[in-house]
Amino acid sequence: VKNQVVKDEL
Amino acid sequence: MNIFRLAGDMTHLLSILVLLLKIYATKSCSGISRKTQELYAIVFVARYLDLFTDFISVYNTFMKVVFIASSLAIVWCMRFHPMVRRSYDRELDTFRHYFLVGASFALALILHEKFTVQEIFWAFSIYLEAVAILPQLVLLQRSGNVDNLTGQYIFFLGAYRAFYILNWIYRYLTEPHFTRWIACVSGVVQTALYADFFYYYFISWKNNSKLKLPA
Description:
The structure holds two protein chains of two kinds.
Chain A: H1 2-5
Chain B: H1 3-26, H2 34-47, H3 58-80, H4 97-110, H5 117-131, H6 134-143, H7 148-174, H8 181-193, H9 195-206
């Protein structure tokens, strides 16, 4: 679930 | 990280390098909107608040620092460098950019993923980035002539947006839970703003002539 909200784009 | 995302980040980086090259080599910022550059500086500072709270990768952190530092450096040059500031097209750069900041922040208060300071500033930065190019496009339209480096700067910025859309399509098709409505919808709006510019850019490229925008 945490992975979905991680903002990995710039 | 897919190839479209990497291409997007690299064209974004390239656009900033082209702009820095123009300012450094010609000691001039003519044709460049300081208002757009100030909006980008606000965009990066507001979006990368997570620099201190979330570590994603060395690449991610490095790029964030580069984007914040370069955007602040460009604004600094345009405001304070004794030679560069003289070439600033003040009378052409009259877009009311504070309206964009206010409207983006108001929208972020209404539409966000979570009601936290960081998430609201993130949404605000996404909305503001979508419209930050407007003062620049208005300035170009008013001056009519576009020098090569300024044209390339905007071309690479537009290419960065186009690659990000391909990246989202790729992620949507390959990742099971990829839904990022705020970023994707804003990104499409942002890219659409470049359509007109791209049209004239390709015409000038095809005819091998100088880029000119209709008044």
